[in-house]
Amino acid sequence: QQQQQQQGGCGDDDAPKVVFECGAPHNAYILEKLKSTTATTSPFISSLAQSSSPETLGLYREQDVKTIMRVLLDCIATIPESVRAMITDIHIASQMHGCVLWNQTVLEQREFENNSVSTNTTWEDKRCDKEFLERVTSSFECSEGRLSCQNIHEGHGLATLLFNLSKDDSCLDMFDFTGTIGDFVASYLTALPPVMNASHASSFGFFHLHAYNAHVQGNKGTENDEYDGLDAAMPSKVPKLNTHPQQQQKQQKQQGEKSFWCSKGLASACTELGIPTAVGEMLINKLLPAVVEPGYILGPLCEDAAKAMGLPKQTRLGAPIRVYTSSGDNQCQVYGCINLPPSSLQVLNPSMSISTIDSNSTNTPFVVNFGTSSQCSTITHTIPDTLPTNQMVEYRPFFGGQWMCASSALNGGNVFSALSSLLLNATESKDFFSALSSASYVASHTVHISPLLQTERNGKGGSFSVTNITSSTTRDELISALCDSLVSNVCVPLIDHLGESQTLFNNVTVCGFATMKCAVLQDAIAQYFKTRMLKLPDHQHAAYGAALVIINQLKGVT
């Protein structure tokens, strides 16, 4: 899609802004290439493997970064040349959790050899069990007082790094930087040290949400008065830090607990785990990147990366191609869903009859996603002084100086896949999904299903159970009960936190592969939100939202 005649695009006033999203052939190519990238051992964790049991190694979820980068560069190179010639900006959406380590060598020599890059530990990594996480936070110290930076779970980048250091305190010596896989990609494309935007940092662990919020609110009160209102069309101009990020972080660290990273909390965790003080200081002062607001331009695309992807060194007007710091996939997907024009939205009319209740209604946007996992999200101006006690609910930095309040569940579309494997053999699994797609929603069933195959971050789940089945129970009732339970699991924590359990919702958007394939799941979402209309975006992938963020941001640059 082209946005003609954008204003003030840093020298590209007349250049079209191009959104390219990989279609099915490219996605299939990526999936085929990445099938064998999950690893249990690698040069990075070889020293850990010696002190880990086979059961522990089986919990590791790691991917080969070299393979990921090769596939990514190859896919971009397959974009038609006429489209590649129009690219002016690159904004990456990637998983918010997990971590990669790398050193300066890979940025200078462009080679993935001699341990220059670790594996990518994904968000599904299970090496940090409940007991380990309790040790990390048992002696937690933070002068902020509200402990918003104590939010850390399995799969979070800093949890993984602390676990590895507790097994081998020299395992980070060969590296200069750490971040998410998206942060590495941005660093590699620019050949610059990484800068992490807050949408990733808040999910990396030990991040000062309230200190960051104070920074954002301070920006709003000075030069960004356009953020006074909140509606479905989020503000187009994303504020940036006024100083270079490395200098900004140096200034923050001189102010102690005003740093966005909780240095004191990390230091106390290192002490509890027996990690030497000098090693903890290296992690805090050397490896962790500076933090900026979403929408920050990291730098120009470097010549080597441009050549590998078949991109021009400069845009048609002679300006460099800009590479932005990577943003969280959840935030990008939600941004795309709530900012699409009406022409790009389908309106679903759920089939069941919903009884109207006497209560207030709201037009506040809510986005419900069922992919592998599931999320229910909304947008707020700021964060409360006291954060949610339910660990499934988080406040995450959003674009335009706003916040996203999200309830995240580890159970989603993966439950459908698991049931297919458990109940049917591989050749018949398609029949299970056919049953899902052809079923009709039954609102008045008495079947109760607890579908939590994965243990949620609030400690609930870990098993699947069904009660109240009788000889007259139908297939549609079972599928309806399953969908109702999955929807309640992810939506109830957020709605209860917001105190809106008796509200009628008029602005609900649904997305995700599982949602698109299962009409009963759509009806269950509508039933929960007490609405007869759901919005279904034509473009709902995080990559599209990432591009849309930059298009809207460039409109506001003066």
Structural description of this entry:
There is one protein chain. By secondary structure, this protein is α/β, with parallel strands linked by helices. 38% of the residues lie in helices and 14% in strands. It contains 22 helices and 24 strands. Strands 18-19-17-16-23 form a 5-stranded mixed β-sheet, sandwiched between helices. Strands 4-12-11 form a 3-stranded mixed β-sheet, with helices on one face. It has a two-stranded antiparallel sheet with strand order 1-2. Helix 17 crosses helix 18 (429-438). The chain is globular, with a radius of gyration of 23 Å. The two termini are 23 Å apart. The model is unreliable at 1-54, 222-258 and 355-359 (pLDDT under 50).
Radius of gyration: 23 Å
The strand order across the widest sheet is 18-19-17-16-23
What distance separates the N and C termini? Answer: 23 Å
Number of helices: 22
| General form | globular
Uncertain segments are 1-54, 222-258, 355-359
Q: How big a fraction of the residues is strand? A: 5-15%
Write down the overall mean pLDDT: 77
Which percent bin holds the helix content?
25-40%
Count of strand segments? 24
What structural class should be given to the helix and strand makeup? alpha/beta
Short summary:
By secondary structure, the chain is of the alpha/beta class.
